Amino acid sequence: MFSLRRKAARLMRSDPAPSRWAWRMQRLMLTPAFRFGLRVGVPFGLTLLAGTIYLADEARRGAIWQAVGDARTAIEERPEFMVRLMAIDGATGELAADIRTAVPLDFPQSSFDMDLTAIRKDIAALNGIKTASVRIRPGGILQIDVERRVPVAVWRHPDGLALIDNTGAHVSEIASRADFPDLPLIAGEGAARHVPEAMRLTRTAKALGPRLRGVVRMGDRRWDVVLDRDQRILLPERGAMQALERVIALERAPKVEILSRDVTRVDMRLAKRPTVQMSEDATETWWNIKQSTGE
Fold it and tell me: Among 17, 27, 185, 226, which one has the highest count of C-beta atoms within 10 angstroms of its own C-beta?
């Protein structure tokens, strides 16, 4: 009986089944998330802890930032990244000088320190510049390509005279109308916003020859054509071109020549009832004739 008990005890001690804690640990090691935590999380945590302890010293942090700054400066100031010259294509003279003033760069300068977008915006904001592009060419050259606005008319505004392009955009101020005799003159409220219409009227009015002085926008609604001898053709809001062509036809008609007579205004605002205003001298002469004839 005693031997049987000893044999049973030996069998119980040699039981191959794991204990409860060993079984739980084996199950836990089979979990992907736990294995990932051991493989990645633990090293990361230890590294983070070590880095936090190391960077807690302000002197160490300053040394690291200084090293990073020095490395960046060494890269940015390499010869292949330095810009030494500025080249401007599409602009000369005063306009080129304005561009250089708008972009006050001291060369040589690292290309990393240049904001090309801001430079382009500053150049495009200049009067006389329609479009601008900025790039860095090989060889350390800041290349600026601009398209100039082409002036098509002289605009008389309250502050003086200016050149404007076909969109009404300001090109430059001028001192005298005589400096640009080949360009038409426009004036009046809102004239710069209606340059294409003014140019069409001017081209048609050129049939009147050197008598044409310019066109004036009246109340930002309609146009007057101004001639020498203080004559004006008052055009309607709509159909201004047709009204002007009618006046030119009357001027060319034999024995009519309405603009060659002593008149100051040809009012075409009412298409069905155009009127003519005579000058004071002509009116006085006509009145004297009428009085003398008793009519």
Answer: 185
